[in-house]
Write a structure and sequence with these properties.
single chain, alpha+beta, 2 domains, 11 helices, redox-active center, oxidoreductase activity
């Protein structure tokens, strides 16, 4: 065999050596340009698997020695194999993520209680998991609003996911209370005032921001005290985040794509275009 024709076999053997100490490879003899290795007449028929466990000690030692020599002489193969394995792992993770999104699609896109903005009839839905004390969420806020306004055909869903302490929880509970008591328009303004606020949140600050947004603060606080649905909604969103392995904010979902972390506007636009191209 030539170097060109033996390279796929060499890569397979190298992968086996790296992963499991050479557990086996597909039939044929291993050879390099200058050193064929005898298989002690235990070569498997073409297309059938041959395991090192099928070899006698001498043949196994000869094969393992040849594998080691070849890898030492051609260390770039190890890098290549690692690259192939990493690419495979990335592909498998992406497929697993797509399946998670598909399994949670109803709760993600149509749970019946999350705020829905943008174009309610948009051709794609952008879901955002956010926390009102998250600095990257605040950075993303203006970018997301610009994206929605400029595009004009994005349905936007907000998932309240308070993960940064008690004041995050209180702010999300207040936002859900405003959505229940005052409706989507006031919630949208309250969400914006919370996201654009640059200071430290407190109960008094939350009340002031709610009042600035036009919310009925008394009704908001009463709901936070008495309406169990508020905590149920946040708990449902936490469970959804767990199912999607979301551990940080902001996290976005578009189509079957999960975007974990802040993306500048140009990259968000590219992601929207990619989702649309896939859908079409």
């Amino acid at each position: 065999m030539t170097e060109t024709t033996t390279r796929p076999l060499t890569l397979a053997i190298a992968a086996a050596a790296i992963i499991g100490g050479g557990a086996g490879y597909f039939g044929g003899t291993l050879s390099t340009p200058d050193a064929p290795v005898a298989m002690a007449q235990q070569e498997a028929p073409q297309g059938e698997a041959l395991s090192l466990l099928d070899l006698d000690d001498a043949s196994r030692d000869a094969l393992q020695g040849e594998m080691r020599r070849y890898l030492l002489e051609n260390p770039e193969i190890i890098v290549e194999v690692i690259g192939l394995l990493e690419a495979q792992q990335v592909a498998e993770a992406a497929e697993a993520e797509r399946q998670m999104v598909a399994d949670a699609a109803d709760d993600l896109f149509n749970d019946g209680f999350s705020y829905v903005g943008g174009n309610p009839n948009g051709d794609i839905t952008l879901v955002e998991f956010l926390d009102y004390q998250c600095g990257f969420c605040k950075r993303a806020h203006a970018e997301v609003q610009t994206l929605i306004q400029q595009d004009g055909n994005i349905r936007y869903v907000v998932k309240e996911l308070p993960i940064l302490g008690p004041m995050s929880v209180e702010a999300s509970r207040a936002a859900v209370a405003v959505l229940i008591e005052d409706g989507a328009a006031v919630y949208e303004r309250f969400n914006d005032t919370l996201m654009t606020f640059g200071g430290q949140l407190s109960s008094q600050v939350i009340d002031g921001l709610a009042q600035r947004a036009g919310a009925d603060v008394t009704a908001m606080r009463a709901a936070m005290e008495n309406n169990e649905e508020i905590d149920e909604r946040i708990a449902a969103t936490r469970a959804l985040a767990g199912a999607l392995e979301i551990t940080g904010t902001p996290t976005f979902v578009m189509g079957d794509t999960v975007i974990r972390g802040f993306l500048p506007l140009p990259q968000m636009e590219e992601a929207v275009a990619a989702v649309r191209n896939t859908a079409n």
